Amino acid sequence: MFALVDCNNFYASCQRAFEPHLRNKPVVILSNNDGCVIARSNEAKALGIPMGAPAFEYKQLFEANQVFVYSSNYALYGDMSSRVMNILTRYSPEIEVYSIDEAFLKFKGFDLFDLQQIGLDMQRTVTKGTGIPVSIGFAPTKALAKVANKIAKKYPERTQSVYFIDQEEKRIKALKWTKIADVWGIGRKHAKRLQAKNVFNAYQFTLLSDEWVRKELSVVGLRLKHELEGKPTLDLEGPKSKKTIATTRSFEKAMTKQEDLSERVTTFTASCSEKLRKQNSHCNMIMVFVQTNYFRKDQPQYSRSIIINTDFPTNSTIELNHYAQIGLKAIFREGYHYKKAGVVVMGLTPNHETQLSLFNSSNPKHQPLMGVIDKMNSSYGTNKVKFANQSLGRQWKMKQENLSKCYTTRIDEIINIKL
Amino acid sequence: MKLRSLHHTSKLEFYFPDYSTALQLPYIDAGISAGFPSPADDFIELSIDLNKALIKNKDTTFFAKVKGHSMKNAGINDGDLLVIDRSLEPQNNKIAVCQIDGEFTVKRIKIEKEVVWLIAENENYQPIKVTSENDFIIWGIVINAIKFF
User: In A187-198, which positions are buried (b, 16+ CB within 10 angstroms) versus exposed (e)?
Assistant: First the structure.
């Protein structure tokens, strides 16, 4: 059984958790530099504010409808996301953080447990403990879990925000309910082509022949078809969607020293940054995680992830590694045998849409440098040019102090209290 | 267009706990006696981690700073830092952070059949009666108050 846990209107919910007057009010979140709308509460959606709406064009509508408008605060979203994900790891050892607000959990060998009860408990624990409401869909495959999640989200009262596709009738009903364009992994182009073939919902899609699907939508489409038929073909993995880029590895031999992990994290970061540059994107968040071997019950277990907000959108390996190392330092604990680690870059924006920030920005010298490195690596072989993670120099270390925005800046406030 | 600063409300400000700088202080288990050769050196192996002592569930713990005096008899004063655990179940007589009609407040809670009472710890404040008419949520339970002198 797979479960997809998805946070409802995540960014808006993060704001709401700390601002009670926002309950049942329209809330929108703007991109960096307050350019356009990147997240909306249900109330804002109901007002017809589209995703990506330019803020200046909608200013009047915002004011007329008393819409609460926020700049994005990735430090907050990142922290709330780690809290949600950390709670989810209590429920299953196998988890794939799919994006900042979604995770797949695999429940293997839970046959003797009441998953319905576990699901409800998970929903309640996360929602209560973090203030972020979540919806959960359970199904035998990931694609069906996505569908089940949509149902749970759409009918929160009837489902208590947890829905199971565990019977054939339920599967068929759910697929008939799902428009083809809303199926996970069906892009706009494919949706159009399928509609032309009179395929309007996910159920009709599963009735197509394997040959046709493979020919028209490639093996990826065929896998999806099997998934929707209830045959598991996708397993948990490091996310590869456009929302995030991840590099994660299990180690052949467990690692115990921070220097060894640090080297790995640098390598993973270099790989993520290279992928970012390859697809012409920048990111504004980086997640680092470490975990021990779940199958070694004789050893103490530890697993932790952290999301760090980069001060500006970047795809420079040097800059991203700086943040990745800070993350590793924060989560690394002595005395464990680490079996796996990874780096995930999130909050991707295309190069040409990158928002510059006023005081900090990506070092412009890195752009041509990275270009040369990528070129050399592609002509002389991967990793011919490497980064020495010891050579970060003093300048970088100095910058660390400015990084933990949320806390250090505020602890200063705490100390300067007027009594 | 209104851009509001985050987590500032009239009575509470919120902060995130930061575990990146776990600070372990040596805990000396042998009392302190002046003028006597101290055997304490042998006991310095124990240590206290304040994060551990003050925070039980790190993923559901939030900090808030108090403004106001309505809880002074409970030892909560203006400027104190509250440690709040959202995962704990509300119980009678616990001190809770509540949301009532769009505002945060901190009060001792008394749960009855149809109503919840929010009781101040200060003679100058009347108990607040919460009914189904109110938009009310018990946001979290206060587990510690930290003072700065």
Answer: eeebbeebeeee
